[in-house]
Each structure stands twice: as structure tokens, then as C-alpha cells.
Amino acid sequence: MSLIGALSSAMSALQATQAALRITSLNIANVNTVGYTRKTVSPLTPVLDGEAAGVSLSEIQRTVDEHLLRQIRNHIAALSGQRVQNDFLTRTQNLFGPPADNSSLSHTVTGLGSAYEALALSPESVIARSGAVDAARRLADQLNSMTANLQQMRSEADQEISRSVEHINALLVDIHELNVDIANRVATGESVADLRDQRDLLIDQLAEETDIQYFERPSGQVVIATKSGRTLLGSLPVTLTHTPAAQLSAGTTYLNGIGTIGYGAGGADITEEVRSGRLGGLLTIRDHTLVDLQAEIDRLAELLKDRINALQNSGTAFPPPGTLTGTHSFAAGDAPTMSGTFRVAVTDPDGLVVETLDIDLSALVPPTIGGLVAQIDAMANASATIDADGQVAISAAGGNGIAVNELDSAVATGTATVGLAQFLGLNDVFDSGTGYDVYLSDRAASDTAPLGLAGTLDFSIGGATTSVAYAAGDSLTDIAAAITGALGGANVTATVVHEAGGFRLEIADGDGDNLFIADSGGLTAQLNLRPGQAGTAGRLEVRGDLLADPNLMATGELSGAALLAPGDVAVSAGDATIAQALADIFTDSLTIPAAGGLPATATTLAGYAADILALNAANADGMANDVAYGESFHFALEVQSAAISDVNLDEELANLVVLQNAYGASARLTTTIAEMMDELLGIAR
């Protein structure tokens, strides 16, 4: 090799060592920089005319295990969703309280049962009556508060979903900008290692928000898609959209008041395609977890209302009040299916009969609420009206009182069959603010699968009947369409509501008119279609007049004797028949249909309340364990990744010594060659 060739090799060694020293110094300087990965260069030997020509360096490389990085991102998506759910479930734990807590829902239900037991022992006690009314109020208030808090949490989750979507959009834009820079630098042969570090940080953040998959093109640009295969970032980023609901109620669900997560310009709904990440966790909380909890406490509220009101309406206070006013609104022409006998009695302050009327409901002429009111109004010592609010009011004359006995009266609509007094709401304890203009069903697994039943639904509206036939091959969606088609002229709409992975049928009269449903084929029983709407627990309240005067609490029962003449005892002061029956409700085992996350069961009311708390506690505990395990596993993956990608200061310092020695040797070689060239030039001169 000539001296010129040797000098060239020595100079290339100096330059390569300088470049390597720069990389090492960058590694040392960024030892604590988040997202920075260790950079390396490899020496290469250029060959000219078959001979080595000094030394050069490869392009700057990142020390990254891409397979491990993908595993971390997949795991962080799952863990991020679990963390979100854990936060909300912890809040529900605080809201519901542990089963043994004195402020828990099950304890409040038990407290109401205890108050009725005290009333049964002392039916004449004003204190016992006040205690029963106050216990009912506390339970209603607690259910109201729980509903308000659950819906507030759902609203917060919905707002967070919108923010998550905005963050995803911003990340996709930033990643796209880095893609462009990387592609330009790759095309010109410049280093892109640091830009890839920046892009990886953004992809990590994106993986925390939602589940993704990705690959890198030869140009250096990364393509990102959802796990379901929708491209989020290709040549350009795709924009996601979500408009949060202004307000959420128990009846507001996904596709029923809650907007979708729209994909791209066409706005395709991808809500149910998101499985994990923070966004997936928020969707689960908003559309499943909290909806299930609401359905469970709604079921409890319905059971309490229906069971307690049934007994309260079959009884009477002592002395009977001067007026009974219903809680439901009716038009005179309403014609529900009524049968059996209903008794109305006028009593004096001592509970003795002044006048009685036994009404054969199947023989009413006309067979309407107006016909019923007219028959009662014909009594000599009582009057009956439908007031301005549509409520039936029955009043006694001359300072006397009104008492009723359900006897074997029955009014049927949907799956609900109740006594006439309960149907009218004459002596309710609880009111949920709903009547017979809205019906809802339990959840069905599918909205498109055949229900396998055939029959006819008869809808009575204002005395006119419209029939809707259904066949064995009809689905929930088919039946809803048939009802709306047949009754749309009366402003009645049937809707299939998507709720927590299931589907409910809702039927509502847009004018607020009552509609009564008879069924020949078992559809209403299979769906448990009954009057009411979601959120019963949030609307439950004790009747205002009962709160104002606990003496209106029914404790005894109007005599059901076949012959009840004036002067006979209608109701006595010490009668605790109804009070005891009310107390027994809380010890009776009830068959309770499935609701929310609870399967069908047989238990007491307090037992069902405890089941709600226990299931929520188990879910919260399970999620906390999942998060703890997930964080431990994530830490292990991060440690493994750090061992590969992070800068090891000791290793860099050792490398620095090697480079220093190499640089010194190259410099010495350069000096030596320079001296030899000087001598050669001197000889030539």
C-alpha cells in the first residue's frame, strides 16, 4: 500500500471513530430520556479494486426488539381498558357500599322490612306508622341517588369517550407528519432513528387509547389499522367522530340517544368493533357495566313497588281517609280488560259500615274507566270523578271515610295482572311516575332471531281495539315494525332498544294516551312486557300525601264478608292484617327474572339487594386483580424491553474507552505517515 493509501485509511479510521464517538455521546446524554433507544453503528470495510480501502460506518441503527414491542402494545391496550374499568368499579363500590355496611342497599331494604314488622306489632301507633313511611322514603331516596350517580358516571364515560376519540385523531395526525419526514429522509439516505423513536412514543400512546395493528412499508412509513381491519393511517389519517350526549338517563343507551363512534367521511359505526384500550374500557363501562347495575336496581325497585303497592291497595288505614286519589292518569274512554268483583265502602270514623258497593267489573256498562267512575258516583254517600290530572278520586260524604277491598278484581295488560285499586293507584305507597302509555320488556339475546311464537296482540286505545298478528318466524324487529305499522296513526311507536349486548322492546304512545295490551300467544309473557320504562329506581318516590300524613298507611283490611250491611264493622283499629302481610314480603322467597348481570333467582328482597352488591363487589375485586396481574406482567415486559433498548451507562463508558484508544491509535498512525511523507519530500528536494 502506498503512503497516500495508508494516510487515506488512517483518516477514514479517524472519521469513523469520531462518528462512533458522537453516537456514544448521544447515548450517554440521553440515558434518562423517555422513549430514547440505544443507537449503534457498525464498522464496514470498503473494497476498491479488490483491496480494502479504509473503514466506514453503517447507518445508525436502533436496538429494538420489534416483536417484543408489539407484545407490549397489545398488552398495554388491554391493561389500559382494565384500569379505566377498575376506576369506575371502585366508585360503584363506594356508591353501593359493602353488603355488611349499615348504609348499604341491602341494609336499607332490611330496614324497611323491620319497620313493617314494628307496624304489625303496633298498628295503632303513630310512631310505627311514621317509622314505616320514613323507612320507605329512605329506601326510595337511596335508589334515586344510586340512579343519579350511575347515570352521572355514564355521562362522564361518554364525555371521556369523546376526548379519547379526539386524542386518537391528534395522534394519527402527528404520526402521519413523522411518516412524511421519515419517508423523505429514507429517500435521501439520511438517518431516521431518532424520528422512529418519536413515532414509537406516539404509537405507544395510541395503543393505550385503542387496540391497533400496524406494519412498516419499505419507505419507512407505518400503516396503522384497528384490530377489526379498518385502516386508521395509510397515506392519510382517517378521522374518527363522536358527539357526547348532552345528558344521559337510564333509558339512554347506545343507538338510543347515544351517538356512535364514526369512521371516516362516511361515518361508519365502529363502536362495537373497539375491544380494548382506554376507549374500549370506557365503552364497556358506559354501555354494559353501569347499564347492568341500573337494570338490577330497577328490578329491585319494580319488585318493591309492585309488591308493597299490591298489599297497600288491598288494605285501608284506620280510620279510613275521606278521599282516595289514584296515582295513574286515565281517560273516561279507556277500556282495559277488567274482571272480578271490587268493593267500595263508606265507613264512619269508628270503622262501621255506612254504605257498600260491590262492582262486577265484567258487567260494567260501558266497560270503561268512565263507566266504573259513574257506578261509584251513583252511591248515596260517596262521589267519584276523574280529576284534571286524569286521576280517579273517590270521596265520602258527611265526614265519613272511604275504604276499598280488591276481592277478586283483576285488570290485565301485558304481563301485569293486578287488582283494580292497584291498577288505579288508589292507595299506593310508591309512585314511579309512569302509567300505561309506555311498556318495556326484559332483554332478549337477539333482535333478529325468530321468537318461535304465534298469536295476536290486541291494543286497546281509547276504547278502540287494534290487532297485530305475529308468527313463529317473526323476530323482535319484525314485531316492532308490525306494531308501529298498525298503530302509527295513533302515534304509537314500537322500538327495539340495544342495551348491554341485548335487546329490549319498548312501546310508547307519543300523545301520552293509555294503551292496554292483551295477548293470545304468550309473547308478552316470554318478553315480560309490562307497563313502565327504564330507570324505575331513579323515579321511585313515596306518595306525597302519605309523607305528609303517615296515618294514611294501610294496616288493616276492609271486611270481605259476603253480606256487609250498614252498622257492621268494616274495619277495626287493631287490625294488623295488611301490616303483617307487608312485613312478610321481606321474608318471602320471590322468583325474580334475570336482570343486568344477575341470572333468574329465587330469594328475598333483601337477598336480591345483597346479590346486587355481591355481584358488583365480585366484579370490582376481579377487575382489581386483573389490573394487578396486568401491571405486574407489563412491568416484566418493560424490563425485558429496557434490557434491549435502553442505554446502559456502564456499557457506553466502556465503549468510550475503546473508541478513545482507537482514535489515539489512528491519530498516531496519521502522525507517523505524515512524518514519513515529510522525509520522502526532503529526500526529493
Structural overview:
This protein has about 675 residues and is of the alpha+beta class. Among the domains are: about 5-60 and about 650-685; about 315-425, Alpha-Beta Plaits (2-Layer Sandwich), CATH 3.30.70; about 440-530. Helices cover about 45% and strands about 20% of the residues. The chain has 15 helices and 34 strands. Helix 4 (about 125-190) runs antiparallel to helix 5. The longest helix is centred in the N-terminal third of the chain and has 63 residues, at about 125-190.
* Outline type: elongated
Question: How helical, in percent, are the residues?
Answer: 40-55%
Overall average residue pLDDT: 91
Query: What is the chains' assembly state?
Result: single chain
Class from helix and strand fractions: alpha+beta
Distance between the termini: 23 Å
Number of helices: 15
Taking pLDDT < 50 over at least 5 consecutive residues as the criterion, the unreliable ranges are none
Estimated share of beta-strand residues: 15-25%
Q: Kindly report the spatial arrangement of strands forming the biggest sheet.
A: 28-29-25-31
Rounded to the nearest angstrom, the radius of gyration is: 39 Å
The number of E-state strands comes to 34
What characterizes the major β-sheet? Answer: 4 strands, antiparallel
CATH class of the domain at 317-426 equals: Alpha Beta
What's the CATH topology name of the domain at 317-426?
Answer: Alpha-Beta Plaits
Query: What is the annotated CATH architecture of the domain at 317-426?
Result: 2-Layer Sandwich
Label this structure with key terms:
single chain; 685 residues; alpha+beta; Alpha-Beta Plaits; four-stranded antiparallel β-sheet; 34 strands; elongated
